[in-house]
């Protein structure tokens, strides 16, 4: 996670102050930014954040070895469309329209990834505008439909993944999603508000 996202997270949690019981989310003046993986143990995470239910933000150093970090983006940090097209171009992915709201979500359609990437490039060339709206590749179950080997490694801090262990055992579903899209895409966090993440 970059520093821009850290600032966003801090502002988000400051905005929650007073709206959640202190046992759920203690009052915070800031959100800790954990910079170096080699100086932060599972015990540190458990005692300092998990047990007291305190948020923190991990730096991008925690994901440097992930295949998606090495292959899905260029050295400048932009999406590597060529790699994605070569490896997943024909895969059908779910795409939400951020400009339309239906109840508490956005309507979705399914399209081949190559069509979505074509849209994404046109959206950027059109000065981040399109008659089709602002489309967001959202809730793609890549790990369920393909081998996740080489895409990411689950950090030790999140190794107690009971929800996915349950669904993996039943071989029905999972809660491992891929999200990607151009600037302007967003994810609804609750009926009370929106959660916006920096996008490319």
UniProtKB/TrEMBL annotation:
GO terms classed as biological process: positive regulation of translational termination
Gene3D superfamilies membership: Cupin (2.60.120.650)
Coiled-coil region(s): none
InterPro entries cross-referenced by the UniProt entry: JMJD6_ArgDemeth/LysHydrox (IPR050910)
GO cellular component terms, semicolon-separated: cytoplasm; nucleus
Record GO terms (molecular function): 2-oxoglutarate-dependent dioxygenase activity; sequence-specific DNA binding
Annotated family: Belongs to the JMJD6 family.
UniProt-recorded name of the protein: Jumonji domain containing 4
The organism of origin for this protein: Rousettus aegyptiacus (Egyptian fruit bat)
UniProt lineage: Eukaryota, Metazoa, Chordata, Craniata, Vertebrata
């Amino acid at each position: 996670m970059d520093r821009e996202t850290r600032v966003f997270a801090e502002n988000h949690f400051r905005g929650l102050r007073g709206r959640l019981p202190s046992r759920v989310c203690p009052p915070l003046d800031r959100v800790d930014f954990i910079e170096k993986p080699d100086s932060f143990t599972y015990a540190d995470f458990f005692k300092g954040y998990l047990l007291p239910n305190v948020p923190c933000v991990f730096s991008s150093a925690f994901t440097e070895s992930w295949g998606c970090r090495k292959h899905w983006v260029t050295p400048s940090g932009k999406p590597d469309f060529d790699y994605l097209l070569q490896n997943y171009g024909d895969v059908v992915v779910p795409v939400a329209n951020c400009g339309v709201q239906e109840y508490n979500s956005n309507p979705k359609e399914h399209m081949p990834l190559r069509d979505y990437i074509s849209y994404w490039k046109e959206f950027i060339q059109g000065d981040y505008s399109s008659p089709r709206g602002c489309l967001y590749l959202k809730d793609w179950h890549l790990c369920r439909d393909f081998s996740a080997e080489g895409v990411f490694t689950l950090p030790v801090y999140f190794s107690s993944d009971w929800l996915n262990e349950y669904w993996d055992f039943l071989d029905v579903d999972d809660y491992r999603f891929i999200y990607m899209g151009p600037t302007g895409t967003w994810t609804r966090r609750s009926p009370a508000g929106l959660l916006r993440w920096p996008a490319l």
